[in-house]
TrEMBL record:
This is 2-oxoacid:acceptor oxidoreductase family protein. The keyword Thylakoid does not apply. It comes from Eiseniibacteriota bacterium. Pfam families: POR (PF01558). Signal peptide: none annotated.
């Protein structure tokens, strides 16, 4: 795995905010002067089905979304199983769940990649009063784990939810911070993936 050029895959059910998470992570990386190439997969079903975002992040120019996932962000175990076959040999996994209840060896016994990090995305979202914000919890956790600047995420979440008013902005900012703090304080880092600091004024994402 190369911290200068890696691929993130975000997987979950339609309606869980997968595409929003991918869009915001893309913009955070761009504001950190990183290069991005991404693609989105929408479910064919009118309701339900799996959504997926693939984002390649590089210090230098990248020209395609990549073919193997180095980081998997799964909003459920089903979402993990939907994309695990695309993982690289050293890929790391972030999955929603209670770390006190999930037996990683039993539930991820077929996993042959790097560390599996269990993050209580849904639980943390509920604790800040917005159950639908588990995708924002995930965003905060993955951005912090990768070493991306926290201020970019806060500014983008504020902007994204601004039209819905302060009653929506505040719990989503709290969800972002909950994910960030969980990653920094509760997850013991067992991988080498930390994004290098790249000088500059940030790229424009169209």
């Amino acid at each position: 795995m190369d911290a200068n050029d890696f691929v993130v895959g975000i997987s979950g059910e339609a309606g869980e905010g997968v595409l929003v998470t991918g869009d915001l992570l893309t913009q955070i990386a761009a504001r950190a002067n990183l290069h991005i190439s991404s693609t989105q997969t929408f479910p064919a079903e009118v309701r339900g089905g799996q959504s997926f975002v693939q984002i390649r992040i590089g210090v230098d120019s990248v020209y395609n979304p990549g073919d193997r996932l180095d980081v998997i962000v799964a909003f459920s175990q089903l979402a993990y199983h939907a994309v695990k076959s695309s993982a690289s040999s050293e890929a790391i996994v972030f999955v929603d769940g209670d770390p006190d209840e999930i037996d990683i060896t039993a539930m991820f016994g077929d996993w042959r990649g790097g560390p599996v990090y269990v993050v209580p995305m849904g639980k943390l979202a509920a604790e800040v009063g917005e159950r639908r914000a588990k995708n924002i919890v995930a965003l905060g956790a993955i951005a912090a784990h990768l070493g991306l600047p926290g201020e970019h995420g806060e500014a983008l979440v504020r902007r994204f939810f601004a039209k819905k008013g302060d009653a929506v902005v505040r719990p989503n900012l709290a969800a972002l911070e909950a994910g960030r703090r969980y990653a920094l304080e509760r997850l013991k880092k067992r991988d080498i993936l930390t994004v290098p600091t790249v000088p500059g004024d940030g790229y424009m994402v169209m």
